[in-house]
Structures are given as structure tokens and as C-alpha cells.
Specification:
72 residues; mainly beta; three-stranded parallel β-sheet; two-stranded parallel ribbon; 1 helix; 11% helix
Length: 72
């Protein structure tokens, strides 16, 4: 009913979100790179009275390790 769902998608994946609810919200973060033409597509169908859907892409492993190790 209420709560947050976070979906982490790889870069280059097209994401389509459909649906919603009266008190529902969506936070869709644009990836650093555009989806790959003709590439895979993830369709998320949402329903219900509330909650938050958060879709984001994970930074590349190299960038994440660099940040973790204090290099960026």
C-alpha cells in the first residue's frame, strides 16, 4: 500500500513506467547515457493508493570503487 520501491537498472536500459495511484509518487533519475537504440526495455506497471517508485542506474563499478577509496 505505502512504502518505497527502488529499482536499480543498468546503463543503456530503456525504462517505461505506467500507472500510479492517488498518493503515489515516482522519482525517475535519468541515466548518464541515453538508452541503447533497439536495446532492452523494462516496463514497470504500478498501481495502488500510495507509495514511491524510485528508478535509478548504478554508477559504473570503476566510479563506485574510486569514490569508495577516496579517489573521486
Amino acid at each position: 500500500m505505502f512504502g518505497t520501491v527502488t529499482v536499480i537498472v543498468p546503463e543503456g536500459l530503456e525504462v517505461v513506467v505506467r500507472g500510479g495511484g492517488l498518493f503515489a509518487s515516482q522519482k525517475i533519475e535519468s541515466p548518464a547515457h541515453a538508452p541503447t537504440p533497439g536495446g532492452p526495455r523494462l516496463v514497470i506497471e504500478t498501481s495502488g493508493p500510495g507509495g514511491t517508485l524510485h528508478v535509478r542506474s548504478r554508477p559504473p563499478l570503476k566510479s563506485a570503487l574510486k569514490a569508495l577509496l577516496g579517489g573521486g
